[in-house]
Every structure is written in C-alpha cells, then in structure tokens.
Amino acid sequence: MAKEPIYAAIDIGTSKVMSVVARLGPEGELKPLGMGAAPSLGVQQGIVDDFSEVKEAVLDSLDECLRYMGRNPVDGFYAVVNGDHLSGSTSAEVLGNGEEGLTVTEQHLRSLINRTSAAGQGASDGKNDQILHIIPMRYRMDGVDGIRNPTGLNANELHLDAHVVRGMSVPLANTMRTLESCKVRVQGMVSHPLASGEGVLTADEREMGAAVVDIGAGTIKIAVYRDGTPFYSSVLAMGSNQLTRDLAISQRVPFQMAEELKLEHGHALPDDIDSSEEIILPATQMQPKRIVLRRELCEPLYLRSLQILKVVHAELCKAQIETALPGGIVLTGGGARMPGFAEMTERGLRTPVRVGAPLWYAGLPDSLRQPEFAAALGTLQWAVKHRGLSDRTPIRAEGERNRSFAGLLRRPFTRSSAPTE
Q: What is the DSSP letter of 285?
C-alpha cells in the first residue's frame, strides 16, 4: 500500500507562530496530524524584527506540533510570508509574430512563464525585490480569449496574462534565516493573501469572483479572484492590534486587558448593543474598579473598524475591478471574528459578506476551524496543488462585465440597521 504523502506549513504571524502537519488521504482530503501555536513577540506587521524572539516562538510551535509524531516525519515546510512589501500585479507576454503558425507545447508555456519572470525582474528597478509567484490568469490565441489550456492547439500568437507576486529580498531572507536556524527545511514560500484564499474560498467563489480580506493582528491581506484565479493581491500595514490600542487608550487600561475586553465585549456596531448593558472593568495601577456602558466601550472600536473598512474599500478600488463580485467578500483572520464587523462590511460595500474558516480538512476540531488559522491551513492546500510544479493553475473564461465595483458603495458607512437609498 502506497504511503500517504505528508505536507507541512508554518505561519510566522504578528501575534502567533502556527505550524501544522497533515496527511493527504486517498480521496484528496487533508487529515491533520499535528498542530502547534506559540505567542509571537518578535514580529511587527508581518516582518521579523527580533531574530531570537521569533526563533524561540518557532521552536515552541514546532515542538508542540511534532511532539507525538515520531522522529523526522516531515521532509520540509511551506512558509507563509507576510508584510506590506508584498505586492501583486498583472503581466502580459506574447509568443509568435502573428504570421508563422505554431502548435502550442508545454515548452511554449514554460517560455511564457520565463519571459514573465524576466520582465518582472527587469521591472524591479533596483528595489532589491524578488518574484514569489507567477500564476497564469488567462491565455489568448489570435484574439480568442478565455483559453483554458492551449497545449496542442494551433495559433499564430499566444498571449499570457499572469498574476505576479513579488516581495523585498531582505525581509524574505530574514524569514528564511529564522526558519533555517530552527532546522526547518523550507520547500517553498507562499504569499499570505494567496494562502488565505486557498484556505477559505470555495471553487464557486473563485469562479464567480470574490475578494478575501484577512484581518490579522498587524496586517490586512487582500486577494481578489476572478475566473478561478487571483488577479490582485496586496498587504496593508494595519491590523486588529490597532483596535486593541485604541481601546487601551480610551479606557486607560494595559494592552493585554484591552485585548481581553475586545475579545469578550467588543462590537463594531455599538448602536446594535442594548443601551443599558454595563461592563465591570477590573482595577489597575492607574484606575480603580469601575463600571462602564458597553456602548461607550465599543465606540473607539467602531471608529477604527470604520477606518479599516474604508482602507479596504480603497484597496479594492485599486484593483480596477470592472465587474461586480458575485462571490462577495470573505472575511478571515482573527480580526474577522469581531461581532458586527461583517455586518458593517456588508452594509457599507453593498455586497455579500461571510466570515470564512478553513475548509477541506477531515477531522479538524472545531477549536481549529477558526478564521485565524486560514493562512496556515490554506498553505497546505497550496502545497498539495503546487508541489513539484510551477505556479500554473486552470484558467476559466471571463464573466460578463456589467458594473463597477466602486459603484457598490453608494452611501457613506452608517450604523443604521438597514441602508437607505
């Protein structure tokens, strides 16, 4: 009986380091074998800034993950990489001169990928960056668009539009060095926005068109999908830690206490809270024990959530989306769990919104089927799809172009229970 392959991923986040190992079952399902999480103290906005602190967190996470798995069960890990130095753009390349015909082969497709890579490196303009992914979005042959697989077809010209993800070399190298110092062999690096998309999007959402918004502690990751593939991705240097800081300042409490208050009593829409509901704040060195209205406690959370949503909307507009996104927006990451934020997003952007947890895992306990684990578990899906292959994914035909995404936001964000026209 053939041995089931094992895949492993590690996500060095701003608030935690998460490692996971899973076995690929005979039906293509992933069966988790071990998971480990450790507090992350040496990462700021997704970038390693304290080598020793991060190394200790990685070792703690791996120790918990591999504790009951025996000796050397994993060949290597796929690493999630983060930070606002990551960016995605569209690149277009062409083969043929329009006069002499060619029969498309795998070599032609590889040549287009190589040209895209060379063009991306040439466009770096000395910024010391490197390409992480080149993902074909669509092929065109002699003016015919939406070709799924051109191999074996005849054409005078073959065009490729690809999504190219690049990042700065120094922070990527620091992530690699940290993992290698922990005896971790890195099999590949995966951009955080795409890892989250792998973790929470269904095939229908990818095909129809959907955006993933992963709200982490230090960064917000955005990936927009259309016709089955990503065509825009970015990372913003802001996150749910700013909500906690605002709460700590407004109530004059320590950061950790503010984090606990946010998780237990936080709400992005204070007007949806009973006006008489009260909360007891424990005594601190600066304040005695006191009682506050929950609505007042959540007011700074509303204001910061509103800012986050406006920034996300502005970023989606940068994607120059020419059609609505029938698949809507999928919120994930730890920040997506705040009550009221999904409702705020749906009201403000006038598009379907759901909170996404990891999919595709057999036997995954409910405690781990949470938005904050989307990227780590999504990276396992990425590893299954891309191991031993170039970043090439099936291409789908384009959908109809009927209205602008920017038009979805017709009114300012409100706290009312229903939008008014």
A: S
